[in-house]
Amino acid sequence: MKLIENWFSERYSDNLQLSFRVSDQLLSVKTDYQRIDVFQTYDFGKLLSIDGTVQLTEKDEFVYHEMITRMPYLYADSKPESALVIGGGDGGAAGELLKLGLKRIVNVEIDGQVVEVCRKHFPELASSFSKKNVELIIGDGIKYVETAKEKFHIIIIDSTDPVGPAEGLFDSKFYHNVAKILAPGGVVVTQSGSPFYQPKAIGMAQRGMKPAFEYVKSYTAFIPTYPSGFWSFTMAKNTPIKMRKDSVPAGQYFNMEIAESAFSLPEFVKKLIA
Ligand code: SAM
Questions:
Q1: What residues are paired with 144 via a beta bridge?
Q2: Ligand 1: which of 32, 90, 160 to mutate, most ligand atoms within 8 Å of CB?
Q3: 189 in helix, strand or coil?
Q4: Strand-pair partners of 189
Q5: Is beta strand 53-57 parallel, antiparallel or unpaired with respect to 46-50?
Q6: N or C: which end of the chain has fewer CB within 10 A?
């Protein structure tokens, strides 16, 4: 990524971009899978970008990580004890799952360099990988689910956008394999992009999940540094998507009201998944 007058810009289209003024570029590396950059921004702390797209910033990562973990936790039929995270090489999702008291977390990240970069630049997130309840596997999540035998109460697809190594994480062949290792009453969640700027992603996630699961529902959250600030996640189960009579402590974004209201979708989003 080039620094132009000390700004990092993520381009959404030929005519639109989000720019962060940065004081430093801390790292730029091309791996076998993607380009990783880390910037020190003025307003959002450190920022991790992969192939020019914002993955996280120190200031607002909590929204994404709380919403991709606490929602499946609360919508599983019984209190979850184990989780599989596919992607998530920053360690943020695994860290949130540890806060929820999960006993076993397997995290399969394809690119070992994402983990190394995050250990160095985002240690408060990546330190989750050193905890005894977390097993980190460097490998392709698509291949992992083809042969895995262990069952999980929560399966989280914390991936990059559906291009390159993450493309197959949105198709129904992948979700059929995921369904085989989901414990009864368990929940699968994927990030499914910005309904406004990536209108195809949420439909792809829904179409990928529907042949493999009885119930599929999308929910949204406000994430300032993702395209348009309006982000979607899609959840799938084989039992009805109903909140457990349990409560999860409020985070910085998540609370029990949001746990219900996040499924209320604007009309244009309903049309994207119709
Ligand atoms: N919060 C982020 C977002 O939505 O922008 C996602 C963060 S996490 C860094 C995404 C990770 O998914 C990347 O590190 C990438 O290497 C990983 N990934 C992509 N395809 C994968 C695959 N097939 N198996 C495992 N990990 C994969």
A1: none
A2: 160
A3: strand
A4: 156, 235
A5: antiparallel
A6: C
Residues 251, 219 share a domain: yes
Contact 125/118 with Cβ under 8 angstroms?
A: yes
Q: Does any ligand 1 atom lie closer than 6 A to the CB of residue 111?
A: yes
Q: Which two tokens stand for residue 68?
A: 């991709």
CATH code for the domain of 41: 2.30.140.10
| Domain enclosing residue 12, as ranges | 6-56
Assign residue 131 a region (left: φ > 0; alpha: ψ between -120 and 50; beta: otherwise): beta
How would DSSP label each residue in 24-82?
Answer: EEEEEEE-SS-EEEEEEESSSSEEEEETTEEEEETTTHHHHHHHHHHHHHHHSSS---E
pLDDT mean values, one per 10 residues, the chain (274 residues): 78 94 97 97 98 97 98 98 98 98 98 98 98 98 97 97 87 97 98 95 96 98 97 98 93 97 98 94
CA 191 to ligand 1 centroid distance, Å: 10
The total number of structural domains that make up the chain: 2
The residue assigned the tokens 């349990």 is 246
The answer on 195 and 167 residing in a single domain is yes
Q: Are residues 154 and 175 in the same domain?
A: yes
Q: What's this model's pTM, rounded to 2 decimal places?
A: 0.96
Cβ 44 vs Cβ 59: under 8 Å: yes
Does the CB atom of residue 193 touch ligand 1 within 6 A? Answer: no
Report, as residue numbers or ranges, the catalytic residues.
158
- CATH number, domain of 200, equals 3.40.50.150
The predicted structure's pLDDT at residue 4: 56
Q: Does the CB atom of residue 159 touch ligand 1 within 6 A?
A: yes
